[in-house]
Amino acid sequence: MSGHSKWATIKRKKGANDAKRGKLFAKLIRAIEVAARTGGGDRNANPNLAAAVAKARANAVPMDNIDRAINRAVGGADTATYDEIWYEGYAAGGVATFVQVLTDNRNRAASEVRSTFSRNHGNLGEPGSVGYLFQSKGFIEVEGDEDEVLAVALEAGAEDVRPGDGLFEVITAPTDLIRVQRALEASGLTVQNAELTKLPKSTVPVDSTSAGKVLRLVDALEDLDDVQAVYANYEMSDELLSELAGD
Q1: pLDDT in tens, 139-175
Q2: Is a pLDDT exceeding 80 seen at residue 187?
Q3: How confident is the model at residue 192 (pLDDT cuts 50, 70, 90)?
Q4: Contact between residue 102 and residue 228 where contact means Cβ atoms under 8 Å apart
Q5: Same CATH fold, 134-200 and 83-132+202-245?
Q6: Which one, 41, 103, 166, 169, has least CB within 10 Å?
Q7: Pairwise CA distance, residues 106 & 113, whole Å
Q8: pLDDT at residue number 11
Q9: Do 35 and 27 contact (CB within 8 A), yes or no?
Q10: Domain formed by 83-132+202-245, architecture
Q11: Domain-wise residue ranges, the chain
């Protein structure tokens, strides 16, 4: 389990206040609207939409909100048009950082991302500087018996199953995410999270000197309204992560 995956799991378990939860819901709805507008409103024919809906449901977004977002996107409603932009840079300790943005204002997004890197001991890089260090994958976190998780996931076409923080991580090709998720759920296993993600091809060990700076940058970027996701290739010990989380 990568350091970034562990940190995301810790934050999800701790929960969020109402303001942060409202911001998360808005980002998830934005992703659904963009996926539906670009690929159509049929989740069976639009894997990006299916993945966006799965992530929203895993984060307790009500189905009524999801349906309204899809209907707005495909029904010609006068909604904002969002551009997808990827920013690349480095956090403290040489940690590669890959930032997905969906924005209706490119200048605002660029300014906010750049200043966030600068304020948090990071450096914004040129396009192509770190993107090659990550690969697109489906990512599922599931509870259950190890033998059953392995059998069901691999039979459904998963690439790998890894032990996680009280869960199992199931890795798939992007196009196989929804099929594997549905197979796990049909077997009675509990899926805690399912999403399309960027996994690092290799990781950078981070010590206590840089760890806090790295996590502050990741959290600050994720807090920006236009930022959908932040991927970073750091690796930290469980003890250090727990210490920084205040456990």
Answers
A1: 999 998 889 999 999 999 999 999 876 789 999 999 9
A2: yes
A3: confident
A4: yes
A5: yes
A6: 166
A7: 11
A8: 63
A9: no
A10: 2-Layer Sandwich (3.30)
A11: 3-74, 83-132+202-245, 134-200
pLDDT computed for residue 20 by the predictor: 77
Relative to beta strand 168-172, strand 123-124 is unpaired
Q: Of 235, 187, 193, give the one whose Cα is nearest residue 211.
A: 235
Residues 30, 228 contacting (CB under 8 angstroms): yes
Phi, psi dihedrals of residue 125, rounded to the nearest 5°: -105, 180
Q: What is the pTM of this model?
A: 0.87
* CB crowding 152-176: b at 16 or more within 10 Å, else e: bbeebebeebeebeebbbbbbebeb
Neighbours of 115 (CB within 10 A): 13
Of 3.30.420.10, 2.40.30.10, 3.30.70.980, 3.40.190.10, which CATH number belongs to 134-200? 3.30.70.980
| Cα distance between residue 114 and residue 134, in whole Å | 21
Q: For position 13, what pLDDT does the model report? A: 59
d(CA 147, CA 163): 12
- Given its phi and psi angles, is residue 235 left (phi above 0), alpha (psi -120 to 50 degrees) or beta? beta
How far is it, in rounded angstroms, from Cα 231 to Cα 197? 8
Confirm if 42 and 73 have CB atoms less than 8 A apart.
no
Rounded CA-CA distance 128/75 in Å is 36
The values of phi and psi at residue 122, to 5°, are -115, 175
C-alpha–C-alpha distance, residues 156 and 208, integer Å: 40
Structure tokens at 170: 């199931």
